[in-house]
Structures are given as structure tokens and as C-alpha cells.
Task: inverse folding
């Protein structure tokens, strides 16, 4: 069974090995990232639901917890170039995860939507893909 740390690592490695667009990606806690000024870029985050359910009780090594999480991403494209590149990026990220299983991590359907113009002059898309797995303790 997978731990939360392992699940995050597995999902990040899957993204790194499958992502093919070439747009720069800002990952969590990466202060070295510099936003481009005139080309698309992506922010990629894996978060956990603050609540998890214990689905099996017992002694140590037999207690099962259902862990829920979200793969969240934001795609930013320059203004006045249309939304095609943003749509392609969102579809590509969804295709990496949507409906797929990685070890015992199950990814559900993904959704994305156009958010519009940001305060710092980008056109933004937001996407989410829910995932779950069981952790034994």
C-alpha cells in the first residue's frame, strides 16, 4: 500500500515522464521558477483533502485509511493569441492522469475551465483531477 509521500512522488514522476508540451512548469515550493513573458506556462500542484476516512479497523498493520487528493494545475497563455494552446495544454495534462491507475492510486475524471484574464495580464485556465488510494497503518 502507498503512503501519502509515495503517492505524491508517483504522480509527480508520472507527470514528469509523460508531459510533452515543453511549456515551463512551476512546481510546488520552487522559488527558482521564472515566468516567461511571452509564452505559455503551467503551475502544477498535488494536494490532499484535509479529511480522510478510516475504512478498516484493527491492530497495527491492518488499519486502512482512504486518502483523497487533487492534482491541480493552472495554464497561463499570453493575451490576444486565442485559447487553443491553453485548451491543448489542459487536455494533455488530463490525458496523463484521467481514468488511469498508478500502482494503487486511482485517478478520476479531470475537468478544466477558462478563468479569463489575470491581474498580471495572462489568460488563465484551471484544472483538477481527483485521485484516491488506501494507506495501511
Result:
Amino acid at each position: 500500500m502507498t503512503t501519502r509521500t509515495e503517492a505524491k512522488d508517483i504522480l509527480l514522476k508520472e507527470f514528469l515522464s509523460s508531459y510533452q508540451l515543453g511549456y515551463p512548469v512551476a512546481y510546488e515550493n520552487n522559488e527558482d521558477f521564472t515566468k516567461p513573458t511571452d509564452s505559455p506556462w503551467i503551475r502544477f500542484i498535488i494536494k490532499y483533502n484535509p479529511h480522510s476516512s478510516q475504512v478498516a479497523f484493527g491492530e497495527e498493520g491492518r488499519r486502512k485509511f482512504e486518502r483523497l487528493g487533487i492534482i491541480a494545475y493552472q495554464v497561463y497563455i499570453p493575451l490576444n493569441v486565442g485559447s487553443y494552446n491553453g485548451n491543448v495544454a489542459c487536455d494533455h495534462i488530463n490525458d496523463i492522469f484521467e481514468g488511469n491507475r498508478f500502482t494503487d492510486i486511482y485517478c478520476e475524471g479531470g475537468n478544466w475551465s477558462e478563468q479569463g484574464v489575470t491581474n498580471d495580464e495572462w489568460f488563465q485556465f484551471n484544472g483538477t483531477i481527483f485521485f484516491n488510494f488506501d494507506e495501511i497503518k
